[in-house]
Amino acid sequence: MASDPLHIGVALDGAGWHPAAWREPNSRPGELFDPGYWTDLVTTAERGLLDYVTVEDSLSLPGDRFGPPRDVVDQVRARLDAHLVAARVAPVTRHIGLIPVVTATHTEPFHVSKAIATLDYTSRGRAGWQVRVSGTATEAAHFGRRTIAELTAGELAAAVGSGAFPDAARELFDEAADVVEVVRRLWDSWEDDAEIRDVASRRFIDRGKLHYVDFEGRYFSVRGPSITPRPPQGQPVVAALAHAPLIYEFAARGADLVFVTPALADGPAPIVAQVADAAARVGRGGRPLRVHADLVVFLDTAQATGRQRLDRLNELAGAEFTSDAAIFAGSAAELGDLLAGWRAQGVDGFRLRPGVAVDDLAAITTRLVPELQRRNLFRTGYPDGPLRAVLGLPSDVPNRYATS
Fold it and tell me: How far is Cα 290 from Cα 368, in angstroms, rounded to an integer?
């Protein structure tokens, strides 16, 4: 096994990250909402010894993250609940981490805490949570409790480029930071030995080891404690996708892992420096924020090169594919070179987004992983322990409320 292996996860989104992915011969479009499809994807990733899968989700239709819903019929226009997908695949996997996207903006932190804690139990310590912020009026209208003055895609791009976000956007991330803080407090609201389960004394719990979190903030207040015991990991892994200093600061305030999107031309070094600066600005102490770089990948297969596959998909879609993350099309050996070079620039790992879920995930596990193993850059077996241990995070997380 590599002494310091690369950390590699995959981001799953329906048939794949390319909008025409569902039209590929192997994509199984009739099964996108069947449990067997998701089980097959995640078990394939586990056979490749990958660290984790993230399961994409949002409160809008795929492809409609910004602006009003579009009237298109040649793309997948539905999605399943990511947390429930992760819960379904948990019992049929043993090692791979399961990190669903759960939106913080319109979801009560008590519900998030309970859901992710339950996933940590059903997966035996392999749960995580990718926090998402909802900033659109369309998504807010699903709930009817508030209005949101949303940015257009152009305004958002300008804000990301300049780092000058309007106050309304900053408030959404401040609120999300409070959600993460409350969720973490609720995970700690039961001490590890709070459950006595003593039939003779008729005591199931020690009430002295359950704690009120008593959070009072600008956006909500939560008393606690949770109704779910402390998760097996103590603190499941919290992750966030970030593209700008404001969001790096949000990740540094409460996350363990941040997904970033370097450009192919620049590499990750400038972003790694920005993340470190953001952590310093918010006064993050203790464990460093782990940085994983995102790449959309179209790998060579036995039938076609990655470039040929991407060109064919673009022709089917009638437009060139673009993404917030860099797009790689080529061989496993070329991708191995890129990953090795980027790791030397300071990233801790990578999250690969399969352009076509079935085809590119298979290529990752059968072509890229063996290529990295030949270079002694990737593990040949899973390490013992929970997801935190797999990612190199501290496994023994102290409970903030424990008195001894």
Answer: 22
In a domain, 398, yes or no: no
> Which tens digit of pLDDT belongs to each residue from 310-366?
999 999 999 999 999 999 999 999 999 999 999 999 999 999 999 999 999 999 999
CB 47 within 8 A of CB 365: yes
Here the tokens at position 313 are 């998909």
Compute the distance between CA of residue 131 and CA of residue 305 in angstroms, rounded to an integer. 35
Q: Is 399 a domain residue? A: no
Residues, the chain, total? 404
DSSP 152: P
C-alpha to C-alpha distance for 243 and 169, rounded to whole angstroms = 14
Q: Which domain holds residue 337?
A: 7-390
- Other C-beta atoms lying within 10 Å of the C-beta of residue 62: 17
Contacts of 103 (CB under 8 A, 6+ apart): 57, 58, 59, 132, 133, 134, 139
- Beta strand 203-205 with 195-198 is antiparallel
The residue among 245, 114, 111 whose CA lies nearest residue 173 is: 245
Indicate which CATH number applies to the domain containing 375.
Answer: 3.20.20.30
Do residues 326 and 383 lie in contact, with contact meaning Cβ atoms separated by under 8 Å? no
pLDDT of 297 > 60? The answer is yes
Report how many domains make up the chain. Answer: 1
Rounded to an integer, the average pLDDT of 174-196 is 95
Predicted TM-score (pTM) of this structure = 0.94
Residue bearing tokens 């424990």? 402
Nearest alpha carbon to residue 85 among 109, 101, 106: 101
Category of 385 on φ-ψ map: left (φ > 0), alpha (ψ -120 to 50) or beta: left
Question: Helix, strand or coil for residue 363?
Answer: helix
- Look at residue 168 in the predicted model and tell me its pLDDT: 85
- The response to whether 337 counts as a known ligand-binding position is no
| In a domain? residue 396 | no
Whether the predicted pLDDT of 200 surpasses 80: yes
pLDDT at 67: 57
CB atoms closer than 10 angstroms to residue 255: 23
